[in-house]
Specification:
Length: about 475
Amino acid sequence: MQIDLLQTELDKIIETSNNNITITDQDGIILRSNPNHWSIYGIEPDQYIGKSVYQLQEEGILSPSIHAMVLESKKPVQILQKTNTGRTVMATGFPLFSNSGEIIRAISYSQDQTEIFNLQEQYKDLEKKLVSYQNEVEELRGKESDYHGILYRSSSIEQIVRTIYRVSKTDASVLLLGPSGVGKSTFARMLHAQSSRKNEPFIEVDCSTIPETLFESEMFGYESGSFTGASKQGKQGLIEQAEQGTLFLDEIGELPLAMQAKLLRVLQEKKVMRIGGKKERQVDFRLITATNKNIEEMVEKEAFRLDLFYRINIIPLQIPPLKERREDIPILVQHYVQTINEKYSMSKKLHAVTYDILTQYNWPGNVRELENVIERVILTADEETIHPEHLPINFKNISLPVEAHATPEIEHGVFDDADWKTAIEKTEKSLLLRALERCKTTYEMADFLSLSQPSVVRKLKQYSIVRKR
Ligand SMILES: Nc1ncnc2c1ncn2[C@@H]1O[C@H](COP(=O)(O)OP(=O)(O)OP(=O)(O)O)[C@@H](O)[C@H]1O
């Protein structure tokens, strides 16, 4: 009765265990096992009892057999088995000895670990990807704020820089979209400089400036004497000049429909025929296009060919105007004040209020306008310090936020009815706000203010100044 109960309990344990428990005798004959788990070995549950593990090993069903190993070594063994159903099984085996020290049983527990191994593989894959992304980020971060001449602090430009970095490794056509002066040409040059074609030509074509009558001869070139006025030697077209390099078609939205059709043919066939030529020439270039037009609307109005749009619009990148990424303005202002001073061997400075006005302005002409305005005021101001009145007329009605008004006090040392403590506090607060606008981190602020970083953090807290992220 007691034996029967033990037997039933053992059967139940084996049957319900999450592990595949298998017991063999000293000759490797399977005495008991859990029927639920044998499917991972590709064998029917009723086929294994009474079978020899050596035979199953020979048939390739157990490779290798843990029992065979335990019986041979007379020691506990742990192995990974690859089953012929493609599963990965972790098997642990133990010998069981009689009182006289003879091995009488081998018992194994095995568990299907396929999912865990798959996850491990995926994890390794992800780790590899992570390392490569980290390298990418490090590379970008190292050059952050000045990446191929592109200055930025905004996350929107950072995102674009990252995308450009990634697509520069491919030959995909990129379409740069955005209003005039946002930096489309600058990004196009950066993309080329970053690509494997960087040592080959970068040919920039402003589609709005080529007259329709000259389009073919300019773009495709011509053979000698092919038309009146043609050069005797013939001429290589712009597309051929971009061979192995990058062809940047700026203002593509200005291209008349007839020229769009001609361009499409070249893009489809990657071949050009010079005017007066007899055979087509194979061309290999990377295409970048840019426009400040709403090109999708042009497609809808049939002013731009849909098939050409598909060709150029593989990777569209929308560059936001400056007013939508205001955090880029201070760094651009500082950059242009410095470079334009250097260009003209000058050392003009912006008055704090001028600086505040420039950073509050909406810049409808974007970075180009910013660069031009700073150049103009540096050249025309008759004083070393550029005051608000030196700015063009359209800057007259800029209203500054309350904090900004505190800054002239520092310049002039004027504090109405203020006691010493209030004056110091006002000054400190103004300096902190100014540093905050110019700097990205509290470490940079500390550098800028010649303070320690903990002091900066403490003072920001003292004046309840919160840094924007
Ligand atoms: N992020 C930036 N950092 C530094 N300079 C920039 C940046 N973006 C643009 N610029 C400068 O602004 C000026 C205008 O840029 P760019 O010519 O690339 O603009 P665009 O969008 O191509 O203009 P358009 O549509 O009129 O051709 C250039 O002198 C360029 O160097």
